[in-house]
Amino acid sequence: MTAAREAMACQICLAPLNTLGAPPTYVHPVQLATDGHEAVPVPVSQLDTVRRTCDFCGDPYPTWTLVGGEVTAVAIGAAAGLVQNFGQAWAACATCQTHIDDGRNDKVVDRAVQAFGLGDHPQVRERIEQLHQAFLNARLPGRTLITTTAWPDTAITPRELPKVRDRLARLYRSDDDLPLAVASTDVREHIAAGLDRARLFWIDSDFTDLAECAAEKLPDATISLDFMPSTDGLLVWSRPITHRQIAAASWTATNDGWQLINYRTIGGGLGGTPLQRLREQVGWLAPTSTVQVQEQHVLPGQHPATALIATWLLVVQQVAEVTTAVVDKAIRKSYARTNRPVPEVRILSIGANRGTTPPTTQSAMGASERSQSSRFWVSGHWRNQPYGPGRALRRPVYISPFLRGPDDAPIKLSTTVRILSSQKPKPARD
Ligand SMILES: [Zn+2]
Ligand SMILES: [Zn+2]
């Protein structure tokens, strides 16, 4: 077996694949326990999530790709049969990266010995050390952020949002490489500048539920400045949404349209120095996918930007109530020091009088529904409505998003509930 040089992963289990033979066939790593399915190779660049592990210690949340000495097929110990996807590019978790930066390679070896359950036998230790050294001694400067790791979610509060934005702008200006189309320095500086002036939006949990329901049904949509809440912005949902698990999205005006970028949160579950370093050097958000769009550009439903566009449309439709978050004193002070105006965070929520059960359906509610202890969104749908001068333009408007259940009950997310009565409800709002 030789190490995989092409970055391919299995579409079914999202595991990185090794190559076998020539011409190469792609196979699951031998140590990986699968349900027996055949590997379905797809380029890693087409996947939002790849189940990669740290090549040093096996940690499931690799953070950086390092380039070093070529290390091909490796097996340690007759019984252990440790064979890994080694090559010139190694994945490092935040903890291993911290130890490497601090010149404590011995601690990286400790982690490997422990994680692979090889026992602290001096010979095993020595072999792992040799392996790490072979790679690290030939290491090239620089590193690339891994954006395909499915970190546990990190909640971002509205108060933190200015800091989250500033760290993200700093990441775009840093020397660390980013994958994706945002790789070039010019593009990165442009996005960072856009983030500096971005309007900040935080979507509360009820509105996030609604946005997710709406995003799943969004038809083809024509991009227009008319339905963007600002020319540049950063928007954070209260939890990751859609099957892509998008935690945040930014949009930046360019000379011929906008750069839309989706993000996931990183660092969830980390602690101590590795977390501190990650927050300083990367922040909270990692870009996962990006698209450049122009005015009147048609984006198909199910497009990666659907979550953002559906949310914009709901905002412009005034489904949301807008309030302003109180920004932390420390953040206000740090902005004042650099002569920046106090940042404003707009919180978008479904207000008390919005989206509640319309009167026409109240009478149609059965006794069983009345006794429900939670409320849920009922099957809204999108309709293209004319707007603008001469009503010549079209934009999708979400129709009949309304809530069923007692007014004081918590709102529950449900995408499967359908209207039970035969009476068609009128839209809650027009
Ligand atoms: Zn697989
Ligand atoms: Zn590691």
Q: How would you describe this protein?
A:
The protein is of the alpha+beta class. It has three domains: 8-145, no CATH class; 158-349, no CATH class; 359-412, no CATH class. The chain has helices at residues 94-101, 105-115, 122-136, 161-173, 185-196, 205-217, 272-281, 306-316, 329-337, 359-362, 367-370; strands spanning 8-10, 18-20, 25-27, 41-43, 62-67, 89-93, 144-145, 199-203, 221-222, 233-241, 246-254, 257-265, 285-293, 298-299, 321-324, 345-349, 375-378, 381-387, 393-399, 402-404, 411-412. Strands 13-12-11-10-8-16-15 form a seven-stranded mixed sheet, with helices on both faces. Helix 1 (94-101) packs antiparallel against helix 2 (105-115), helix 1 crosses helix 7 and helix 2 crosses helix 3 (122-136). It binds zinc ion (2 copies). Residues 54, 56-57, 59, 92-93, 95-96, 111 line the site of one zinc ion. One zinc ion binds at residues 54, 56-57, 59, 92-93, 95-96, 111.
Q: What's the layout of helices and strands?
A:
Elements: E1 8-10, E2 18-20, E3 25-27, E4 41-43, E5 62-67, E6 89-93, H1 94-101, H2 105-115, H3 122-136, E7 144-145, H4 161-173, H5 185-196, E8 199-203, H6 205-217, E9 221-222, E10 233-241, E11 246-254, E12 257-265, H7 272-281, E13 285-293, E14 298-299, H8 306-316, E15 321-324, H9 329-337, E16 345-349, H10 359-362, H11 367-370, E17 375-378, E18 381-387, E19 393-399, E20 402-404, E21 411-412
Helix pairs in contact: 1-2, 1-7, 2-3, 4-5, 6-8
Bound molecules: zinc ion (ZN) (2 copies).
Task: Give a brief rundown of this model.
The chain has 430 residues and is of the alpha+beta class. Helix content is 26%, strand content 24%.
